[in-house]
């Protein structure tokens, strides 16, 4: 199994570590590859788009030609896992802030997001959330987190917080508002690995 982690900016090492731990727990022999340039994604079985600064992330993915490769992988139904800024990057619409900055999104998952919906950096918080594929609550970390304001008819809501949608799934794509890579709980990464294994 080869999983590519977009390594342009954001929580790259944390995702790599979480994926390696998850593969160990699932007893899967695999490699996690940092992706900075085009040509790597077509060889990957899955793609992870980490958090960071979404405007910069989208601009640099386009500059490197990685954006087209991710779209092609999505069309082939390769599992994609996007967190925080990654969620914004793969959305169809990015709300007012994204429109103001003329942010070019990948449009892989049919949803609309609102950037920084839970406040700025100093309003970061942790809370337990229920995720529909996990048996017990998950301690989620929110840092300048976006929220999902609309989901398409083929998109499944997999977690909410105070009536706000914070996680969604469409086919093999999982998108989260929060940062699972910043906890020691690898259950979400394990679930993602099982999607790839299918």
Task: Summarize the model shown.
This protein has 198 residues and is an alpha/beta fold. It contains six helices and twelve strands. Helix 1 (12-25) crosses helix 6 (187-197).
Keyword list:
198 residues; alpha/beta; Rossmann fold; seven-stranded mixed β-sheet; three-stranded mixed β-sheet; 6 helices; 12 strands; 30% strand; globular
Descriptive report:
This protein has 198 residues and is α/β, with parallel strands linked by helices. The chain has a single domain, classed as Rossmann fold, CATH 3.40.50.880. The protein is built from six helices and twelve strands. It has a seven-stranded mixed beta sheet, with helices on both faces. A three-stranded mixed beta sheet has the order 5-6-9. Helix 1 crosses helix 6 (187-197). The relative contact order is 0.18.
């Amino acid at each position: 199994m080869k999983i590519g982690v977009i390594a342009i900016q954001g929580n790259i090492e944390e995702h790599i570590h979480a994926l390696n731990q998850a593969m160990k727990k699932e007893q899967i022999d695999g490699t996690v590859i940092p992706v900075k340039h085009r040509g790597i994604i077509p060889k990957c079985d899955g793609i992870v788009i980490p958090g960071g600064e979404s405007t910069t992330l989208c601009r640099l993915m386009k500059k490197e030609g990685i954006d087209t490769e991710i779209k092609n992988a999505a069309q082939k139904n390769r599992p994609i896992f996007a967190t925080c800024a990654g969620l914004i990057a793969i959305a169809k619409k990015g709300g007012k802030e994204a429109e103001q900055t003329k942010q070019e999104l990948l449009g892989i998952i049919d949803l609309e997001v609102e950037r920084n919906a839970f406040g700025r950096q100093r309003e970061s918080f942790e809370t337990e959330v229920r995720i529909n594929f996990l048996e017990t609550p998950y301690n989620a970390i929110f840092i300048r987190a976006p929220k999902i304001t609309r989901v398409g008819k083929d998109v499944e809501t997999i977690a909410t917080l105070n009536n706000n949608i914070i996680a969604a799934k469409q086919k093999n794509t999982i998108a989260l508002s929060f940062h699972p890579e910043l906890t020691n709980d690898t259950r979400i990464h394990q679930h993602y690995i099982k999607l790839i294994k299918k």
